[in-house]
Amino acid sequence: MNIVVVMDGPETVDPTSDTSFGLLLAAQEREHVVWHCTARDLEWVDGRPRAQARRAFADEHATEPLRLGDAEDIDLTAVDAVLIRTDPPFDVAYLHMTLLLDHLVGQTLVVNAPRGLRDANEKLYAHRFSDLVPSTIVTADAARIVAFVRTQGTAVAKPIEGHGGRGVMALRADDSNLPSIIDTLTLRGRAPVLVQRYLDVAATSTANRSARSSDSRQATTSEQTSASEDASKRANSTTPTGESSSDCVQRCAPTACTSSAST
To answer: Is there a single domain that holds both residue 69 and residue 144?
Structure first.
């Protein structure tokens, strides 16, 4: 298959956590041909969506995990799939990208569907399932936000178009800076923000994950130390001929060592 991945630049890739990189790597391992382009590389030429795309080569162990070839003019109606993987914000440029890729519907598989991306805002769509989310308001009104925070004691404010924890602020009723924080987040009342009740369980879950990660690192270090000590003991042990193992290896290399006891 020929797959075009519309995503941010390769300099943003973190192979340890980037799901877009993981998809690209998995496709490559299955011997699909993978292309990379950014949203600004998309074009409309001769009545078709096209892209200035580059062959992508993924290597999670390399210093440069995502290496790109030279730009080529690709007709997107001629490829098998287009994956939309650009990060928010959902701004005018993002909107235009989805409108352009809408023309591929019925010709090329587009994942996720451009219309779906427009309709299902990451922050707001979840409130179709209000029983699964904490108490929430979406507003640009500072007085309403202050009243909500006073009711909750502590709340969390999130930009509607943000992602990855960027711009998330804790709001506390006793914080003297609360009016200034709200003023900044709402652009002085011009932009609505999502404000939710703060959940202690979320902080506890984060702390537990950090503790498990720390325990895992300590266990790995302990195992490595133990393995190193075992290797050192084996190196300093003697063979049936009275030689140390290390001396035996040096004497017998490159031929096989024959001083070990036969079974």
So the answer is: no
3-state secondary structure (DSSP) of residue 24? helix
**What is the total count of domains within the chain?**
2
CB 103 within 8 A of CB 162: no
**Residue 35 three-state SS:** strand
C-alpha 64/C-alpha 15 separation (Å) is 10
3-state SS, one letter per residue, for 212-259: HHHHHHHHHHHHHHHHHHHHHHHHHCECCCCCEHHHHHHHHCCCCCCC
Peptide bond into 254 cis (omega under 30): yes
Give per-10-residue mean pLDDT for the chain (263 aa). 97 95 96 97 97 97 96 98 91 93 96 93 90 95 98 95 86 96 96 95 59 49 48 46 43 38 40
- pLDDT at position 224 is 45
Q: Are residues 39 and 147 in the same domain?
A: no
Domain boundary among 118, 142, 160: 118
Kindly tell me the number of DSSP H helices and DSSP E strands found in the chain. Answer: 7, 11
φ/ψ (deg, to 5) at 177: -90, 5
Q: Are strands 42-45 and 33-37 parallel, antiparallel or unpaired?
A: unpaired
